[in-house]
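Possible regression after last week's pipeline update?

I re-ran a chain I had predicted before the update to compare outputs. Posting the input and the new output here so someone can diff against the archived version. Not blocking, just want to make sure nothing changed silently.
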Amino acid sequence: MEKLHGIKAGWLAAAAVCLAGLTLTAPARAQELEKLKVRLDWTPWGVQAPFHLAQQKGWFKQAGLDVSLEDGNGSVTTIQIVGSGDQFDVGHAALASMMIAREKGLPVKAVAVFAHQSDIGLLAPKESGIKGPKDLKGKKVAYTAGSLEAPFIDAFLGAGGLKRNDVELINVDASGKIGTYVAGRTDAVFSTIPFVLPSVSQSRPSDAIRFSSYGLNMPSFGLFASEEKLKTKRDAISRFASVTAGAWQYIYDGHQDEAVDAIVAGRPQARLDKKVLRGQIDALKDFMSSPETAGQPVGTPVAAEWSAAIKTLSAAGLIKDSHSPAEYFEPNMIKPELFSKVIAK
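New output (post-update):
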């Protein structure tokens, strides 16, 4: 990502003074590492690369943190568990789902945004002629009723002049949706693009059509915490977010395969496919910035993108349109000195 390289140079310069007198306080904290429990979005996949890489390289410990990572089984569940209890300090999930949870009364806020563009979209076979929503007329399309894609299907179809009854929507459980598409039982599938595309393309080469290309803008994967944890563990959460942001920059500075190896080493029992993991990391790169984030460091929430998300989610009836962007994120959580310490490796 060209933008990330420019940011790297700027932040290294900006943090030079801080780094001159800072050693990441590792010696002082080595004997008293602060424990931080993190709940991830799903079972191991490419989006979790910075956590495993930072863990393997000891970057969290250098920041005074004893981090434990637990796999998840969906963003919604992770948000509910992290937001409503004391079991975890930080969560990693789709932040649009976090916004919806906050609307329902869960006191959660984002602390870092890594995928600034929505990762949701349509996957269709290459050479199928499906290039946008207008091409779905009369087609069979798999989706999952309880997933984040469901509330936006009507708006996506509407962008192509279609209504729901113009297509045959096949509701499939999340665990079987991709298998249904790969087997050819549907003409297309709504899903998470960077997660699915690298794996399905091995057996059914596909193109991806983003929801964001049709005005459905909302933040995707990032870090969040409950308001209570932001009061009691703000500094530790900030350090964790900063190191993770730096790890993403490090990965896209040419260390993708190193990140893949770190995921596999961190989850040896998962029998992960390195080719798929690398494909997922590569696919995520295009989601890691947006026009609103130009000039901003990795992970930084930007008010304009939250304004766009409020518009998108309120139009779908998922939140009220009266909210302020500032309600959804905690500012100034990415610290330049910690970020730069990682990317200077």
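Follow-up from reviewer: compared with the archived run. The radius of gyration is 20 Å. Marking as no regression found.
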